[in-house]
Design brief:
Blueprint (H helix, E strand, L loop, with lengths): L1 H16 L6 H6 L2 E9 L8 E12 L2 E10 L3 E12 L2 E7 L5 E9 L2 E12 L2 E10 L4 E9 L6 E11 L1
Antiparallel strand pairs: 1-2, 1-10, 2-3, 3-4, 4-5, 5-6, 6-7, 7-8, 8-9, 9-10
């Protein structure tokens, strides 16, 4: 009886230790070549600038890298990238936007969306904080949306949104 109890306890502990599922299958679903269009705003109050973007995403176990270029105003092209690493259901990484500054990303996944807090490398829209969502839409589409607080109204404003499809 004591042996069965100890075996049960040992199995329960092993199961509890492995309770957090691997993020690798989800990250693998985001890997590939992507292209699409969207918009960005320089500030929460500015007019949107139309973008055409292409990205290459690579998944390596619990890590995802997205490297791409977005073109706006017909001639201006900028490199953008994000690197994320999952530990359990938490994500951390960095984002390099059009200005070249390195910003911190932290958050978690819920369903098909990775919800991230952004800590900008410099003050943007009155502070250094924003939110980013990388969302899988079906098997062949991704939406990347950034929202920021408008300092004048206090309201959340979509400051960028890129809708990508698998090439």
């Amino acid at each position: 009886m004591k042996r069965r109890f100890l075996t049960f306890v040992a199995i329960s502990m092993l199961a509890a230790g492995g309770a957090s599922a691997s993020e690798a299958p989800f990250l693998t679903s985001l890997a590939g070549d992507w292209s699409g269009a969207g918009m960005m705003k320089r500030t929460t109050g500015s007019s949107p600038i139309k973008l055409d973007c292409s990205f290459q995403s690579k998944a390596d176990g619990e890590a995802l890298s997205m490297n791409g270029k977005c073109r706006g105003l017909l001639v201006v092209s900028r490199a953008v990238s994000a690197q994320l690493t999952a530990k359990g259901n938490r994500y951390a990484g960095r984002y390099i936007g059009p200005s070249g500054g390195v910003s911190a990303l932290n958050g978690g996944r819920k369903g098909d969306a990775i919800n991230l807090s952004v800590r900008w490398s410099r003050i943007i829209n009155g502070d250094r904080n924003a939110d980013m969502v990388i969302q899988r839409i079906g098997e062949n589409a991704i939406r990347i949306r950034t929202t920021d607080r408008d300092p004048a109204s206090g309201q959340q404003v979509i400051t960028s949104e890129i809708n990508l499809t698998r090439r």
